[in-house]
Backbone:
């Protein structure tokens, strides 16, 4: 199960970004990931596995740097336009919660990993960039983690994370499609709510 | 002789596998069967593999587990040399050859990964990727209990890898079996760790793992630069 050797590196994948609008996207990824790494390594509550505290770190440090609406819309694909505005709002909300929970869980598994930042190859006036990083693990091959980011009036925001070639958005598109095929958009919302309530 | 026949049969299977698979599209004609296998896999992982893997972690020091992974990686590197050559990736081939020579020669037959300490990157090429590079499609997706996700193409590659592994040539049967056992434990342990994440993240673990696997393999065939995915609409 080779795939499983890279999945745990997801725990570093969310180490991105709260920012000054002018901050370059790669600088932002680096700053936020370093901030989060410091908290994880030094905060006694996080070390003790305090879920509430870990979620708080994810909520305050990481989430402001994500464009959840775009992320959700991309994961919905062609189904996005079929959803009513109220449904869209709920989808964004529920998907956001799911990702917070997933990453909080991942952070608890975090061990002695370090991050390496690749030089950004993009035009100075680009509005979409991919920031490339690598997670270096003891005794394992480095796992590349790419952040797809777009420039918004509120600064650069992450709209997809690609871990070792596995795009979060693409992965959830299958999941969402399947739920919608079986129970429509409302069915998907219910499944997400149930998952988050569990 | 028997081995050669098996290999030939598999190669034919790979050639015939799945004709109409465009990249990015899921080809899972055996979905019902695969899902049944997936369902069987869950309790096996939960009630057998997981406790055994936990026991393995509890009774072995981490340097020992690292040595087991290094041993597997060294054999992977050896096969990577072959696959680098089959794809004409000479830079990677040089790296992999240096890795295997250093790790086998100075790292006690691959137990210590000296080459990584010297920052020689792994080529990580395998037969499945070579078939992909040559233009063979993935073919039907398969889920095999304990083994995990694969496809006809990648599975054919894995079987070649198993048949030709130098571990098979170890003359002392108990030693060989202990090595097989340790290698399996090491891989199960990785899988158990990762499944915790999948449990939390996935709405349907089957589709989640299927897409993650296929994305990962596509990425590997293209050495990290897969062609952009076509939008469905």
Residues:
């Amino acid at each position: 199960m080779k795939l499983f050797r890279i999945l745990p590196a997801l725990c570093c994948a969310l180490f991105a970004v709260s920012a000054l609008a002018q901050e370059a996207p790669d600088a932002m990824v680096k700053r936020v990931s370093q901030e989060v790494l410091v908290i994880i390594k030094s905060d006694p509550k996080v070390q003790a596995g305090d879920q509430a505290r870990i979620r708080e770190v994810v909520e305050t440090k990481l989430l402001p740097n994500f464009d959840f609406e775009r992320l959700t819309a991309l994961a919905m694909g062609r189904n996005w336009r079929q959803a009513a505005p109220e449904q869209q709002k709920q989808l964004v909300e529920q998907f956001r919660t799911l990702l917070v929970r997933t990453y909080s869980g991942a952070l608890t598994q975090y061990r002695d990993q370090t991050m390496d930042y690749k030089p950004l190859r993009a035009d100075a006036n680009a509005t979409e960039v991919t920031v490339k990083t690598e997670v270096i693990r003891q005794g394992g091959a480095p796992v590349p983690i790419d952040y797809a980011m777009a420039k918004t009036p509120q600064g650069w925001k992450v709209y997809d994370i690609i871990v070792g070639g596995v795009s979060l958005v693409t992965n959830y598109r299958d999941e969402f499609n399947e739920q919608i095929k079986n129970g429509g958009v409302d069915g998907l919302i219910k499944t997400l709510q149930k998952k988050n309530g569990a | 002789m028997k081995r050669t026949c098996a290999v030939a049969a598999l190669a034919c299977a790979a050639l015939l596998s799945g004709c109409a698979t465009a990249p990015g599209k899921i080809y899972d004609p055996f979905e019902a069967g695969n899902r049944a296998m997936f369902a069987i896999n869950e309790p096996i992982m939960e009630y057998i593999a997981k406790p055994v893997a936990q026991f393995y972690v509890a009774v072995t020091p981490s340097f020992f587990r690292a040595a087991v992974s290094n041993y597997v990686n060294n054999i992977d590197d050896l096969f990577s040399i072959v696959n680098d050559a089959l794809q004409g990736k000479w830079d990677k081939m040089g790296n992999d050859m240096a890795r295997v020579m250093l790790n086998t020669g100075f790292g006690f037959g691959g137990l210590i990964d000296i080459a990584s300490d010297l920052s020689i990157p792994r080529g990580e090429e395998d037969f499945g990727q070579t078939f992909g590079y040559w233009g063979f499609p993935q073919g039907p997706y398969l889920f095999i209990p304990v083994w995990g996700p694969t496809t006809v193409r990648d599975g054919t590659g894995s079987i070649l890898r198993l048949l030709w592994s130098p571990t098979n040539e170890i003359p002392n049967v108990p030693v060989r079996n202990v090595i097989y056992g340790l290698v399996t434990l090491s891989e199960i342990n990785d899988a158990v760790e990762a499944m915790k994440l999948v449990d939390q993240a996935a709405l349907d673990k089957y589709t989640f793992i299927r897409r993650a696997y296929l994305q990962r393999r596509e990425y590997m065939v293209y050495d990290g630069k897969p062609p952009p995915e076509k939008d469905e609409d």
Remarks:
- Chain B touches chain A through 43 residues (CB under 8 Å).
- Chain B has a mean pLDDT of 87.
- The first helix of chain B runs from residue 2 to 16.
